[in-house]
Amino acid sequence: MATHDTSDTTATAFHVWGDRVRDFADRVAFHYRRNGAWQSLTWRQADDAAREIAAGLCSLGLRAGQRVVVLCQTRLEWVLSDVAIAMAGLVSVPIYPSTTAAQCEVLIGDSGASAALVENADQAAKLAPLAAKRPDFHLVAIEEDTPGVGGESPGLSLAGLRRAGVAWAKAYPDELDRRAMTVLPSDSFTIIYTSGTTGQPKGVVLTHANLVASCASAVRAFDLRPTDVQYLFLPLAHVLGREVEWAPIIVGSQVAFSEGLARIKFDLVEVRPTFMAGVPRIFEKLYAAVQAGAQQGGRAKRALVRWAFGVAAEYSGAMRTGKAVSPGLRLSRGLADKLVLRKLRKRLGLDRCRFLISGGAPLASEIAEFFHGAGLLILEGYGLTESTAAAFVNRFDRYRFGTVGPAIDVVEAKLADDGEILLRGPSIFSSYHNNPTATAEVFDAEGWFHTGDIGVMEDEFLRIVDRKKDIIITAGGKNVAPQKLENALKAHTPLVSQVVVFGDRRSYCVALITPSEPAARQFGGGDLAAAAASPALRAAIERAVAEVNGALASYETIKSFALLPADFSEATGELTPSLKVKRDVVASKFATAVAGLYGE
Q1: Residue 458 burial by Cβ neighbours in a 10 Å radius (0-12, 13-18, 19+)
Q2: Predicted confidence band at 553 (pLDDT cuts at 50, 70, 90)?
Q3: DSSP string, 337-384
């Protein structure tokens, strides 16, 4: 089989997977933890497993084009199932593990899914009533010991599905390859439902051509290599997770799977990845932890760390602005690196890291600048589910903090008269599933996709202003971008975890603020509610707000704020699965607190 050129539109997910298996058969593809120890899987072994799953899906009687739900945390079996679904000519429908049973039923009903691969008993229980009502709906549990699956129930385990696949492949030896080869680049690869900070989710249909165009462009933009090792913890129900799942497949990089957010700090030290993608919330927490750690230890140690961070910031500034680095600064930077920065990178498990990727929401430029000074380059990008993740991204040799970089090489972009970002190209979706009205609303007559985001261009670098619908218009008619204020305050002090700014049709802006974990330790004995009630913490945050306000126009400053006694979370409903704040939920849930800030 010839290697497929991912720069054109003739390749499918099956093609690029097959190319990699053929070229790198006995090289390690994946690392995963089982029973407390890391294990590895080669490309050939992964292909054998994916083929058994694909054949097993065929044995259930599923036909090309039918949809299969994947309801699972990020893990090896998720990727193997994703590959298998594509091999069998089926269409994947990823669902976040945090989705409720009622929400699952809505998404399955809208997508018309005929089967679901679920992780464990908790996820199986969500779909059991649906499976009981629909004899034609197939339920497969990834974990073998899931109760109620594989016995008398209509469901079966993934191991059982693979055994059925082996038998089916013997009976129909060439059928799986025939089905895979009949899939066209224009055929649907996946339907991803937007988690959304407001409104009902829409099913974004992405084709094989969309996937390959986007991921191949990401490989070029980030210069991914077969020698790279990625640490993957992003949810694969999110489009950024899918992009960093498939981009390494295109080039042959290794992927190490996380066992969950709680293990990230341990896994990084063990894996020592060469790159990792995350959302800003992860980098904000990492930054806050480093800043809090810098305040610990004796006076001499704190002074050394403070000096090293200062030198790092000066060196980073010179590098970013193109200024000549003086011999004295170069010498100081080398000493700071030896005494502090190199140890910091090693302690974080990022001493081999070539770059970090940030997407999903804006990253404060102060955080990017800090890590750059510490020897860790965060390349921020921008995209949507509808653009198959990245549409703009910073590069190694072309980056500007506070922006999301230039457009990727397969995307055309321009700004509308009101600053809305418009996109066109092979990585841009063409329709919402079963929703022609919503599709027509976002495409104009010339085929431009209207993103709903506002931006400004600076020498081909895009700077995101805010979501069009989130822009605050004050009572005085001034436009305020809330994310700008929120990110500035979060980056300014490690005492703040979340900030939500309000002020639409009001005479001034106010904010709801949640204390951070370092703030809870310092002011509340580890208790967030106690910290929020602390006059000392309020005074410290008042000073931070005043300092941030000093760099703003008067109409966009935060005039008043309230400290909330608990942080936002997905479990309590204020965050999406990709850790973005649901503004409408926060506004409704804390309406009394907001009203109080306006004296109502």
Answers
A1: exposed
A2: confident
A3: IIIIIHHHHHHHT-TT--EEEE-SSPPPHHHHHHHHHTT--EEEEEEE
Mean pLDDT of 358-386: 92
Give the residue from 166, 16, 7, 6 showing the smallest Cα distance to 86.
16
> What pLDDT is stored for residue 135 in this prediction?
86
Widest distance between CA atoms in the chain: 75
Q: Note the pTM of the prediction, 2 decimals.
A: 0.83
End-to-end C-alpha distance for the chain, whole angstroms: 71
Q: Does residue 158 contact residue 165 with C-beta atoms inside 8 Å?
A: no
Fold classification of 471-597 is GMP Synthetase; Chain A, domain 3 (3.30.300)
Q: At a CB cut-off of 8 Å and minimum separation 6, what does 591 contact?
A: none
- Categorize the per-residue pLDDT at 148 as very low, low, confident or very high, splitting at 50, 70 and 90: low
Asked if 274 contacts 229 with a C-beta cutoff of 8 angstroms, the reply is yes
**Going by C-beta distance under 8 Å and a sequence separation of 6 or more, which residues neighbour residue 483?**
361, 362, 464, 466, 467, 470
Query: φ and ψ at 116, to 5 degrees?
Result: -145, 135
Per residue, the 3-state secondary structure of 385-402, as one string, reads HHHCEEEEECCCCCCCCC
> Domain 278-351+353-468 falls in which CATH fold?
Rossmann fold (3.40.50)
Q: Where in the chain is the domain with CATH 3.40.50.12780?
A: 13-274, 278-351+353-468
Residue 21 CA to residue 15 CA, distance in Å, equals 10
**DSSP-derived pairing of the beta strands 138-141 and 156-157:** parallel
Distance CA 523, CA 445 (A): 57
- Mean pLDDT (the chain) is 91
Cβ density class 434-445: b for 16+ within 10 Å, e for less = ebeeebeebbee
Q: Which residue has the tokens 């129930």?
A: 153
Between residues 256 and 452, the one the model is more confident about? 256
Query: Mean pLDDT over residues 445-471, rounded?
Result: 90
* Residue spans in the chain of domains classed CATH 3.30.300.30: 471-597
Spatial distance between the Cα atoms of 406 and 568, rounded to a whole number of angstroms: 33
- What does the angle CA 435 – CA 440 – CA 441 come to, to the nearest 5 degrees? 100
* N residues, the chain: 600
Is the confidence at residue 502, as pLDDT, over 80?
Answer: yes
Residue 62 near residue 137 (C-beta atoms within 8 A): no
Three-state DSSP state, 68: strand
Q: What is the model's pLDDT at position 39?
A: 97
C-alpha 207/C-alpha 189 separation (Å) is 5
The helix (H) or strand (E) run that includes residue 44 is helix 43-59
- The predicted-structure confidence for 473-489, as pLDDT tens digits, reads as follows 787 777 788 888 898 89
Determine contact, residues 141/155, Cβ cutoff 8 Å.
Answer: yes
Tokens of 301: 């140690």
Query: Is 119 within 8 Å of 71 (Cβ atoms)?
Result: yes
pLDDT digits (tens, 9 = 90+) for 202-215: 999 999 999 999 99
Structure tokens belonging to residue 59: 């044995």
**How far is Cα 434 from Cα 64, in angstroms, rounded to an integer?**
18
pLDDT for 150-164, tens place per residue? 443 446 899 999 999
Taking the domain 13-274, which CATH number applies? 3.40.50.12780
Q: How many CB atoms lie within 10 A of CB 186?
A: 12
